[in-house]
């Protein structure tokens, strides 16, 4: 598989740190670019009176997204913010911009939470034309009591 462009959707959760580390290593080993991507659906409906708020939200999101950098020296990166439903925006961007691989996090929800909240990663996997690597946040090691050993 020839990887030159990696799309890395970001949702600003703690899982993004792990995803960024993996995407950075993958980009370095393939001399690929990472495109950090954030799509959001604003709480305010698209209306002319809310246009200025949408612009401010987009600028704020871009500023926050640009704080995320590759964890490996020498990896090229760019940052994209778009307004719209995250699943369709990620898939559309990947399909229209020659993305070779999507590397994204999954919260690993099951049961009721998954039924109510859905799975962005699962939907992207089903709809994207390119491969998708979904990484679940590592489970922290249980702390051991050193005094007890």
Helicity, in percent? Answer: 25-40%
CATH architecture field:
3-Layer(aba) Sandwich
What's the Cα radius of gyration?
A: 17 Å
What's the total number of strands?
A: 5
H/E topology pattern: EHEHEHEHHE
Q: Can you tell me the CATH superfamily? A: HUPs
Class by SSE composition: alpha/beta
Across the major sheet, the strand order is: 3-2-1-4-5
CATH class: Alpha Beta
Q: In whole angstroms, how far apart are the ends?
A: 48 Å
Q: Uncertain regions: pLDDT < 50 for 5+ in a row?
A: 111-118
The major sheet is characterized as: 5 strands, parallel
State which percent range the strand residues make up.
15-25%
Mean model confidence by pLDDT: 83
Query: How many domains, in number, for the residues?
Result: 1
CATH topology title? Rossmann fold
Number of helices: 5
Helix/strand layout:
Layout: E1 5-9, H1 15-30, E2 33-40, H2 51-65, E3 76-83, H3 86-96, E4 101-106, H4 111-117, H5 120-127, E5 132-136
Parallel strand pairs: 1-2, 1-4, 2-3, 4-5
Walk me through what this model shows.
With 149 residues, the protein is α/β, with parallel strands linked by helices. The protein has one domain (5-139): HUPs (Rossmann fold). The chain has helices at 15-30, 51-65, 86-96, 111-117, 120-127; strands spanning 5-9, 33-40, 76-83, 101-106, 132-136. The protein has a five-stranded parallel β-sheet, with helices on both faces. The longest helix is centred in the N-terminal third of the chain and has 16 residues, at 15-30.
